Request: fold
Amino acid sequence: MATETDVQPIAVAPRSWSASKSFAWLGVTPFVLFSLLFLILPTLLLMVGAFQDAEGHFTLQNIAGLADPTILSAYWISIQVSTASALLGALIGFFLAYAVVLGGLPHWLRPTLMTFSGVASNFAGVPLAFAFLATLGRLGLVTVLLRQFVGFNIYSTGFNLLSFWGLALTYLYFQIPLMVLIITPALDGLKREWREASAILGASGFAYWRYVALPVLWPSLLGTTLLLFANSFGAIATAYALTGSSLNIITILLYAQIRGDVLHNQNLGYALALGMILITGLSNAAYIVLRSRSERWLR
Reply:
C-alpha cells in the first residue's frame, strides 16, 4: 500500500511567458492598427497642418484666424447645441434607466429598452435627418396628422426643425439611448444594503437619494453628460443633411473650409479641427477621470 511519502507530485511544465504574451499582442493588433491609421496619424496630421500655410511653411496665421467673428460664432453655436442636447439627453436618459432598473417595472422592459438603445445610439447621419424630416418636417407625418385631426400646426408656434432646437431635438434620438446604456451599470452598482441601512436609520427616500445615491452617482452623471457633449459636438452628417448651411455650426464650417467650393482653406480647416479636438479631448479626459472615481465607489 502506498504511503504519503510514496506519492510524487506531477511535474507541470511552466507556461511560456513569451508565447502567451505574443498571442495576446496578436489579438489587439487590429485595434492598434485601426487606432494608428484612423485616429493617431490623422490627429498628428491636423496638428502639423494647423501651423502650416499652403506651401508647407510654418505660420501662426491659421491659429490667429480662429478669432474671426464667424468662426467664434460657429464654435459658440456648436457648444450651445451640444450642451442643450447633452443636458436633455442625460436627464431623460437617467429617468428612463431608473424606471427599468429601480422602478419596479416588468422585467421584459429592460432588455427591450437596452436593445433599442444599442441600435438607436448608432443611428445618425443622413438616415436620421431624413427620418426627422419625414416625421416632423413641414409635410412630415406627425405634422400633417396634428394639423388634420387636432387642428394644431406646430410650425405656427415658431417651431422649425431646421433650427437650433430642431437640431438639438434630432440629436436627442441618439443622445438619450447612449445615456441609458452608460448610466444603467452605475444604477446597478447601487447596493441594496445602502438603501436598507438608510431606512433602518430613519432616512426617507428623498434623504437616501440626497445624501447617499446621488453623491455616489454624481461622477457617473457628470462624466456621461460630458461624453454626450463630446458626442454631439463632433457630429456633422446629421447636421449637414438636416440644416445644410442654414445653421452656422463648427462642423459644417470645417467641411466648407476643407471640401467646399467657395470657402477652401485647408490649413485653416486644420486649425478649426484642432480647436474641436481640444474641446472634445478635454470633455473625454474629464469623463475618464470621473468614471474611474465612480468605479471606486461602485465596486
